[in-house]
């Protein structure tokens, strides 16, 4: 289902992947610095989750400024929260690369405003912890303030997220957290000798099982 979400004096293009059965939870997905909501990894993940009962809303927001992307993301969260068509008890924010930074920033803002009951967790695909070859400047400020569960899916050879550095940051986080390393994958999640479909299947199953665990915990 294609929708246009009002954002300032413009609209954000978005697509709902709607499960066949009754749904209680949703995931909002967005892309990295390049590309849009039709980035193959996001399309694959949305289809996989929707086929297993999780509503997915993915959206496009062009713009290389993280604060701008976070404002857009916040607008999408509000839109879904107030939606009459889909009554959800909670939502997980997810993004690829820069999109995951924007998602982390939104969660930090909403928790500061005391308005984060709707948000159940964060999924970071290829979180860009630092620029290539610039390991001294870490983009970890939002992560350290987050309290909801966080899943990182990163390539062990990601040139924007050195393995040891992410493990160090995660060890300081207060939130329940998990890292799933895709062996030998780079920032784009490509691995020599493995097909794209094979890697996407690994990512999708990891994300879905983590979501299921966290949804079940919340209902206990």
Write the layout of secondary structure elements.
Blueprint: E1 2-7, E2 10-17, E3 25-30, H1 40-50, E4 55-59, H2 66-81, E5 90-96, H3 98-112, E6 119-125, E7 150-155, H4 163-172, E8 177-182, H5 196-219
Parallel strand pairs: 3-4, 3-5, 5-6, 6-7, 7-8
Antiparallel strand pairs: 1-2, 2-4
In short:
35% of the residues lie in helices and 23% in strands.
Describe the structure.
The chain is an alpha/beta fold and 220 residues long. The protein has one domain: Alpha/Beta hydrolase fold, catalytic domain (Rossmann fold, 3-Layer(aba) Sandwich). Helix content is 35%, strand content 23%. It has an 8-stranded mixed sheet, sandwiched between helices. β1 and β2 form a beta hairpin. α1 crosses α5. It is globular, with a radius of gyration of 16 Å. The termini are far apart. This is TEX30 protein. InterPro entries: AB_hydrolase_fold, KANL3/Tex30_Abhydrolase, NSL3/Tex30. Pfam families: Abhydrolase_11. It comes from Nothocercus nigrocapillus.
Largest sheet strand order: 1-2-4-3-5-6-7-8
**CATH architecture field:** 3-Layer(aba) Sandwich
Oligomer designation: single chain
The name CATH uses for the topology is: Rossmann fold
**How many strands?**
8
Radius of gyration: 16 Å
**Which parts are unreliable, with pLDDT below 50 for 5 consecutive residues or more?**
none
- Globally, the shape reads globular
Helix/strand-derived category reads alpha/beta
Would you state the CATH class? Alpha Beta
Helices, by number, come to 5
**Helix fraction by DSSP (H/I, runs of at least 4):** 25-40%
N- and C-termini, Cα separation:
32 Å
Largest sheet: 8 strands, mixed
Order of helices and strands: EEEHEHEHEEHEH
The proportion of residues in beta strands is 15-25%
**Average pLDDT across residues?**
92
So, the CATH homologous superfamily? Alpha/Beta hydrolase fold, catalytic domain
Number of domain modules: 1
């Amino acid at each position: 289902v294609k929708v246009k979400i009002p954002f300032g004096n413009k609209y954000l293009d978005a697509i709902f992947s709607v499960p066949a059965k009754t749904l209680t939870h949703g995931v909002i997905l967005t892309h990295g610095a390049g590309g849009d909501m039709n980035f193959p990894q996001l399309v694959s993940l949305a289809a996989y989750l929707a086929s297993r009962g999780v509503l997915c809303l993915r959206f496009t927001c062009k713009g290389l400024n993280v604060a701008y992307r976070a404002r857009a993301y916040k607008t999408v969260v509000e839109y879904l929260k107030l939606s009459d068509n889909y009554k959800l008890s909670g939502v997980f924010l997810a993004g690829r690369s820069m999109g995951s930074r924007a998602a982390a920033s939104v969660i930090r803002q909403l928790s500061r405003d005391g308005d984060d009951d709707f948000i159940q967790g964060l999924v970071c695909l290829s979180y860009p912890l630092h620029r290539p070859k610039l390991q001294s400047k870490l983009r970890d400020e939002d992560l350290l303030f987050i309290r909801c569960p966080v899943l990182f899916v990163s390539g062990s050879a990601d040139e924007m997220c050195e393995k040891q550095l992410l493990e160090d940051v995660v060890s300081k986080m207060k939130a329940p957290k998990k890292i799933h390393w895709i062996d030998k994958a780079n920032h784009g999640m490509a691995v020599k000798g493995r097909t794209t479909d094979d890697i996407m299947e690994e990512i999708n199953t990891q994300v879905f099982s983590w979501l299921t665990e966290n949804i079940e915990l919340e209902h206990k």
